[in-house]
């Protein structure tokens, strides 16, 4: 199967772009703390500014989160350069990279160094999140699925080792 060299970066760019666009719309149209029902009893848009990581853990540790995102960026680029990846793994890494960059951009450009969160599902009572958060989760899921699939693309030596 022919390797698609730049799929990972296209997915990452689309993820960052769409994530930042949605956050911009939320910041411009919905005051912090306000909510709009999308589907009553199922999902609402709630504008929150999260100073921490997932579940608001470790609040106000901006540079720690920026450092972690930078490490993710370097690790993703390293893995992509080093191994032949199937399409699902490239999409997974692209989502992971795009999600990390999307939240890192928020932390850097926001005057309060917070991340804009806006999606709340009543049905699962999960904390308010954003597209970047979901992209990270789905990226990791796709990577796990890819790692267990048989018949994935392998390196030139046929052993699945690095190039």
Structural account:
With 163 residues, the protein is α+β, with helices and mostly antiparallel strands. It has one domain (7-34, 45-148). It is 52% helix and 12% strand. It has 4 helices and 3 strands; from the N terminus they run H-E-E-H-H-E-H. It has a 3-stranded antiparallel sheet with strand order 1-2-3. A hairpin with a 3-residue loop joins strand 1 (35-39) and strand 2 (43-50). Helix 1 (7-29) runs parallel beside helix 3 (87-109). The longest helix is centred in the first third of the chain and has 23 residues, at 7-29. The two termini are 16 Å apart. The model is unreliable at 154-159 (pLDDT under 50).
Give a quick rundown of the structure.
This protein is of the alpha+beta class and 163 residues long.
Q: Features of this protein?
A:
163 residues, 12% strand, membrane, transmembrane helix, globular, transmembrane, single chain, alpha+beta, Lipoprotein signal peptidase
Structural class given helices, strands, pairing?
alpha+beta
As for the number of domains, it is 1
Count of individual helical segments: 4
The helicity comes to 40-55%
Q: Report the sheet with the most strands, covering strand number, pairing sense and barrel closure.
A: 3 strands, antiparallel
GO biological process, one term: proteolysis
Catalytic activity: Release of signal peptides from bacterial membrane prolipoproteins. Hydrolyzes -Xaa-Yaa-Zaa-|-(S,diacylglyceryl)Cys-, in which Xaa is hydrophobic (preferably Leu), and Yaa (Ala or Ser) and Zaa (Gly or Ala) have small, neutral side chains
Membrane topology: Multi-pass membrane protein
Pathway: Protein modification; lipoprotein biosynthesis (signal peptide cleavage)
């Amino acid at each position: 199967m022919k390797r698609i060299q730049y799929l990972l970066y296209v997915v990452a760019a689309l993820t960052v772009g769409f994530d930042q666009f949605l956050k911009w719309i939320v910041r411009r149209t919905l005051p912090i703390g306000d909510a709009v029902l999308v589907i009553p009893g199922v999902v609402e848009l709630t504008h929150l500014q999260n100073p921490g990581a997932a579940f608001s853990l470790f609040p106000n540790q901006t540079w720690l989160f920026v450092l972690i995102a930078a490490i993710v960026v370097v690790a993703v680029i390293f893995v992509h350069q080093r191994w032949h990846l199937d399409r699902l793994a490239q999409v997974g890494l692209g989502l992971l990279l795009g999600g990390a960059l999307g939240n890192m951009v928020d932390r850097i450009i926001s005057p309060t160094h917070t991340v804009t969160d806006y999606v709340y599902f009543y049905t699962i009572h999960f904390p308010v999140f954003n597209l970047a958060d979901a992209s990270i989760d789905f990226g990791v899921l796709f990577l796990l699925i890819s790692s267990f699939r048989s018949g994935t693309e392998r390196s030139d030596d046929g052993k699945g080792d690095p190039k």
